[in-house]
């Protein structure tokens, strides 16, 4: 019998990522995500249903998520479902369905609250719109030659 276990979620973090490092040096990050769905009832009433999902990330991905993500920020997650089962101190059996992160992608722009214009620790890769080329770059201007080589 064939099986397939893949989940793709797009939502917002419900809390700051919780990260710890094991004795072996492995990084584990636990995060919560809220995923909403909007639908209309038979009466035409518009409703929103939110599902809260616990996600576990490991290794380098856990480190990157911890560094750049905070509560409320959007994130796309690809992963697999995992059923955790345990027994309470009173002897009751419990279980919880969660997601083990396999891949992720940041959604939206950089956080503007970081200040300095270069938020998120990234540097701007293009000059400001009002900047003029320096004298050294205008002396070696090969832009006319390059334009002729472009096939479109």
UniProtKB/TrEMBL annotation:
Keywords: DNA-binding
CDD domains: SSB_OBF
Tagged with keyword DNA-binding: yes
Molecular function in Gene Ontology: single-stranded DNA binding
Entry's Gene Ontology BP terms: DNA replication
Transmembrane region(s): none
UniProt-listed InterPro entries: NA-bd_OB-fold, Primosome_PriB/ssb, ssDNA-bd
Region listing for Disordered, in residue ranges: 108-152
Annotated Low complexity bias: 121-140
Superkingdom as given in the UniProt entry: Bacteria
Gene3D superfamilies xrefs: Nucleic acid-binding proteins
Residue spans of biased composition, Acidic residues class: 141-152
Subunit structure: Homotetramer.
Name the record gives this protein: Single-stranded DNA-binding protein
Organism listed in the record: Coraliomargarita sinensis
